[in-house]
Amino acid sequence: MALSSIKSFTVELDGPADTAFVGGEIVSGQVVLELCRDTRVVSMKVQGRGVATAHWLENRGMNSVYNDYTSKVTYFRKRQHLIRDNGEVTVLPAGRHEFPFSFQLPEETLVTSFEGKHGSIRYWVKVKLHRPWATVRKLKKEFTVIEPIDINTPALLAPQAGTKDKMAQAWYRNFGQVSVTAKIDRKGYTPGEVIPVFAEFDNSTSRSIVPRAYITQTQTFIARGTIKQKRSVVATLCGDIVGARRRETWHGRAIKIPPVGPSILQCRIIKVEYMLKVCVDVPGTSKLNLELPLVIGTIPLHPFGSRTSSVSSQYSVNLEWLRMAIPEQPEPPPDYSSVVTEEEAEQCNNNNAVAPQPADDLSGILERPLMAFVQEFRFRPPPVYSEIDPNPQPLNMRPRCMTC
């Protein structure tokens, strides 16, 4: 029998079993074929593919006919011949045979591997072995691809804040208003991090409320112009009861991000988005939800911070709704010469004289060490500050009437 001549037929990828690849890297390995006796082979080829698929079935009412919604996006397809079909049969002797292969993933960013209820994003290596007068032997080996998402970018380091209110009503009667104000330090986080939630709950009704916070995941699948969504809660935070006509403040209540997959935002047919929802149940009406967008990344925050994070920390101090103490009169900034030496100031001026890079080419900016941005922010001169008007109005000048 033809099948009995093959003892084993496997695909082995180089590196650890849990290796994750990114765009531009090389996927290599070998096809291992063990034969019990001499075997005739026509050809053997290996193919690497990456495909996103969205698929589900729907029926309307009592109709037994189902509508098929399917959409596919191919990210790469590469083929390599291990034994080329040149019109002649190749005889492989009994024993172990290894056929190495390698191919490079596309340089452009690939979407992260994903498995969902109505779709998937998969990458695999597939081997086909053709023999005369025998069925084609197929072998498939999947591997993981990760899309790098660096949260050390200005957009993901920006603080997120919002406010929302709702009136409690019953039978056209108002029982007061409930308002929620919340803020988080930044938009981008990585799994395992703790999000400090700053929030204020103002309960002007005659009933008690319970504030809560959730981290939700929304999977969106798109096929044939139709959208299918699946929402789930991945983390929860429950606050203390806020009594009638009372106010409650969260000074950085912690909610931890569980080990979830990163955000998927660059695929046309599958998206994975995260949201922080701060909510309360308003008596007599629906739930009051305040949503703050989140991006779950793969590259964690640098320990030494960034210019944007410094700005965000200053911004959080000036928010009135946090009820933080603000000095009535700010202290003047230090003298420029006491902060920056002449050599550093001259170096900063020389650096500022360099022509800026074109807006279309951001690769050089993103590849610069983050410390460069820290130094750029640190060496800037302090703002002009004076308690005395440098151009006072003459005493003998009569104030001008603005209505004349």
From TrEMBL:
Q: Which InterPro entries match?
A: Arrestin-like_C, Arrestin-like_N, Arrestin_C-like, Arrestin_domain-protein, Ig_E-set
Its GO CC terms?
cytoplasm; plasma membrane
Q: Which GO terms describe its biological process?
A: nervous system development; protein transport
Describe the location of the Arrestin C-terminal-like domain by residue ranges.
174-301
Q: Which PANTHER family does the entry link to?
A: ARRESTIN DOMAIN CONTAINING PROTEIN, ARRESTIN DOMAIN-CONTAINING PROTEIN 2
As for family, the record states: Belongs to the arrestin family.
Put simply, this protein is called Arrestin domain containing 2
